[in-house]
Amino acid sequence: MQFNRYGILHTEENMKIGKKTTGATSYTSGVSAYKKAAKVESKSSVNDSVEVSSSFSLVQKAVEELKLVPDIRTEAIAGIQKEFDDGSYHRDEVKVAEKVIEDHMKPSV
Length: 109
Hints:
By secondary structure, the protein is mainly α. It has four helices and two strands; from the N terminus they run ββαααα. The chain is about 60% helix and about 5% strand. It has a two-stranded antiparallel ribbon with strand order 1-2.
């Protein structure tokens, strides 16, 4: 057995030169089978469709609305910033610590 640089097996039978060799016959039959399969695939047109439920549409609308809401509550921050700037900002450290612990202990959703 000998293979050429393209990995094609050279045998005495497919090396014969004549009207039709076995190698040429297998090649042409493979090509015609491929063409037949392509014709069948193109003839059988498949119509794909997607149906979206009304609940999905509602969720999608909610997501779009949430994108319009700013991430930062500017009104709350402006008030705290004013208190901080004039030196009147004070929070009960114990309450802040309790809230941090409480939030940390909540189960993740």
